[in-house]
Amino acid sequence: MSPRPWSANLDMYRRVPTDLLEGTKRGSILSVMAIVTMTVLFLLETKAFFGVRLAAEMTLDSNDDAQIRINFNITMMDMKCEYATIDIKSDLGTHQNITQHVNKLQIDAEGVRQRYMSRNRHQTDIAMSDPTVTATIDQLHEDGVDAVDLDERTINYAKKTQEYLFVDFFASWCSHCRDLAPTWEVLAEVMDIAAEESLDKKIEGEAHKYSDEDYNEAKKVELPVMVGKVDCVNHATVCQQEGIMAYPTLRMFVDGQKYADYNGHRTVIEMVHWLSAIETKHKSEKGTENKIDSTVHDIAHEFTLDEKPEEKEWAEKIKKHRHMFSATNNWNDDDHPGCQLSGFLNVDRSPGNFHIIARSKSKVFDPRVTNVSHEVHHLSFGMPRPADFAKKNAGEVPPHFVESTQAMNGNVYVTKNLHEAHHHYLKVITTNVDVPLAYPRNNNKQFTTAYQILPSSQLSLFPEDTVPEAKFAYDLSPIAISYKKTYMNWYDYVTKLMAIVGGTFTIVGLLESGIHAATSKKNR
Hints:
Layout: H1 6-9, H2 25-50, E1 53-60, E2 67-76, E3 84-90, E4 93-95, E5 102-107, E6 113-119, H3 137-140, E7 148-149, H4 152-161, E8 164-170, H5 175-203, H6 212-222, E9 226-231, H7 236-241, E10 246-247, E11 249-254, E12 257-262, H8 268-286, H9 294-304, H10 309-320, E13 338-348, E14 352-358, E15 364-365, E16 374-381, H11 385-392, H12 401-405, E17 411-413, E18 420-433, H13 445-448, E19 449-461, E20 469-476, E21 479-486, H14 490-523
Parallel strand pairs: 7-9, 8-9, 18-20, 18-21
Antiparallel strand pairs: 1-21, 2-13, 2-16, 3-4, 3-14, 5-6, 5-13, 8-11, 10-15, 11-12, 14-20, 16-17, 18-19
Helix pairs in contact: 2-14, 5-6, 5-9, 8-9
Transmembrane segments: 27-44
Protein name: Thioredoxin domain-containing protein
Domain Thioredoxin: 124-280
């Protein structure tokens, strides 16, 4: 008899006769448990097979773009739009007063937007002083001081007694203030001479009946506009009460109340025209007669203009621009303490920062009262479409991905003390996401590249002679993260199903054998 081939002896599925098997209640219960377990695991594994998983991969950032876009919407709580300026600084250069793609909106004291201020524009160049006033301030003071020096007590008295009060809030260390001083003194002298001529017309030869003291008091009544000045270095309390942030601030008071600040050319003629426009508007509302008549204009011309051709040319130029500073365009600053800046910046892909600072071509700011408290409504990097896609398709990106691209949204940074400002440091991480099937033709970087932000903020102290600024420093990480959609291979799925069946059967079998051995030993 020949031996059986080896393949006949290979049998991993030998059968035991049925009459040798014994069924038990315990075996039935464990069998049901095994079937339920295998069914549940089968359904979960099938769901995973048809589902999508996100895999993260870290590589060196290979983005070769020269610039990156910064999207922002920031409200400065105590800074006028005319002063709010954005500067950009990076390792490759500095750009001041960025105006392209930047919009400004005035914000009132309640945080309500007042009106659209159009696109940001470069600040207008104005004349810092009257070029026709050649005398120095000391020479003008030789025959007396016409611009009245005011302090805490006298300014309140002047507000009560004078219908029109025009005040120069200045600082002795301010160069613009020193340049303006002779022009301001001449303006005060023009008003004083106009008052004399008006009084002389009224008394018509009766001047001999008045003492010098009575004549001077009567002349004060005839003043078209009282011109005064406040030194904010010696009288800081007055300037703080008036909310003076920059020097010089030329402020008009009407009937004791703040009316408007003058921001036009600082020449005698231009200021007289501006004062006349304000008085005309105010008198028309009250139905009374103007004090600033043609006599005041004639006196101003006599003081400031002669026959030199260059001075006539200058007068014509400022006349053409007079409409820019007319009284009809005045703003009540109390209604507009803040400014909302929004738009986007294109910056170099190198470490740098952009900061918001108060700056003016015609004024010097007082560091003691410059407040850069701000609220970040929105701040993100890159094109906005990847973030929009992530919002609509949350399953395509990791949890909290959208929040990480706008990590500073809604944050408020308030400074409570002088010479303080918040500085923000942003680590920007390039993040690549898969292109959605809805945009098959738009397979480019603006749809696939987003930027996550890791922010850190701190309160910084500034020297007493430095104007604080809200600073946003950024640095791009050299590591990029890529999120890719992955699917389970079919052979992995089959292998796992077999493991579920075999593993469950084996584990339950071992459990049943253990229980059987324990109960048999106990019965003995």
